[in-house]
Design a protein that fits this description.
alpha/beta; 17% strand; Rossmann fold; 14 helices; 2 domains; globular; single chain
Length: 319
């Protein structure tokens, strides 16, 4: 099944009672810094603190049309679990969240507050294997954060809003893990204006998709290293539906360091008074690190994807 802009328009209608249209904020300081207009799409102000509920509401609502009693299961580093459990609570669905033991404490707290069942594992990979087992044995609906049609459709609704708010945008820069919302954005942007350029940004400890994109060969032996931006540290499956969209729509991938991520968390608090998690700031970090790429455009936008980070982690990383 190839996802179309009509699918994403349907998703927008479906989820609109449950999510916000988030603001688009002009960055005076960054526009001066790189000598072009830069805008921040503030999904950190979305319900539950990230863009994730867009896809989660879309997934659960569509599945409830088939079977209202469906139970959902999802492996996650945390952010996906917060968004999915939030949507499940609002829609009276049962969800099982499988996470690594070292997950952010505030994310665990939020998921428990949303009445989801939680199991902890040594890694996200182990959590994914158990989620797949539960899908087969219990009949749960498995929900990938990115390798999922409804999650991609939900993420794409960000693009519909952005084009309403900034019709003359000519470049979009996104932090990328598994590529779900970037795939959705690509479908929307390229359908409406094929000349819009899309750039993905990944952290140097986990540039899985960047490696795949540049080599065009699946990086089967690629090792993900620990990163403060664990929410986008995805080891993407070879059959992931996101790959074909990203390979078609993305101009290039850029790499930022752990230090770049920390610096931009500080920069965003100082210049915009927004508290942003490491995974949520990677696109902005890419713009600031590679100004020579982006100052050739007239109107550059990036998505600030979330704020779900504990205060303890924030204090630790800014030191």
């Amino acid at each position: 099944m190839k996802i179309t802009i009509q699918d994403i328009l349907s998703a927008q209608k479906r989820i609109s009672p449950h999510v916000f249209e988030t603001p688009l904020e002009y960055s005076i300081d960054l526009s001066k810094e790189i000598n072009t207009n830069v805008y921040l799409k503030l999904e950190n102000l979305q319900v539950s603190g990230s863009f994730k509920p867009r896809g989660a509401f879309n997934k659960i609502l569509k599945q409830q049309e088939i079977n209202p009693k469906t139970e959902f299961v999802a492996p996650t580093a945390g952010g996906h679990g917060v968004g999915l459990s939030y949507a499940a609570k609002k829609l009276n669905s049962k969800v099982h969240i499988l996470m690594p033991k070292d997950a952010d404490k505030d994310r665990l707290k939020d998921i428990r507050t949303n009445n989801a069942s939680i199991q902890l594992f040594e890694s996200v990979t182990e959590a994914r294997l158990e989620a797949k087992r539960l899908e087969k044995e219990k009949g749960f609906c498995y929900v990938s954060a990115y390798n999922d049609v409804e999650m991609i459709e939900g993420g794409g609704t960000i693009g519909l809003e952005l084009l309403e708010q900034l019709p003359n945008v000519d470049c979009l820069v996104c932090g990328v893990g598994g590529g779900g919302y970037l795939a959705g954005l690509g479908i929307v942007m390229k359908s409406i204006n094929p000349n819009i350029k899309l750039y993905g940004v990944q952290q140097e400890n986990a540039p899985f998709l960047a490696n795949w994109f540049r080599s065009k060969v699946y990086p089967s032996n690629f090792k993900i290293k620990p990163s403060i931006a664990e929410g986008i540290g995805a080891e993407v499956e070879e059959d992931s539906i996101t790959w074909n969209y990203i390979n078609e729509f993305v101009e290039d991938f850029l790499i930022v360091s752990e230090a770049d991520i920390i610096d931009n968390i500080k920069w965003t608090i100082k210049n915009h008074k927004h508290f942003v998690e490491p995974s949520g700031i990677v696109g902005l970090a890419g713009i600031r690190k590679y100004p020579e790429i982006f100052n050739k455009f007239k109107n550059v936008a990036t998505v600030i994807t979330g704020r779900n980070m504990s205060y303890e982690k924030f204090l630790r990383i800014i030191k």
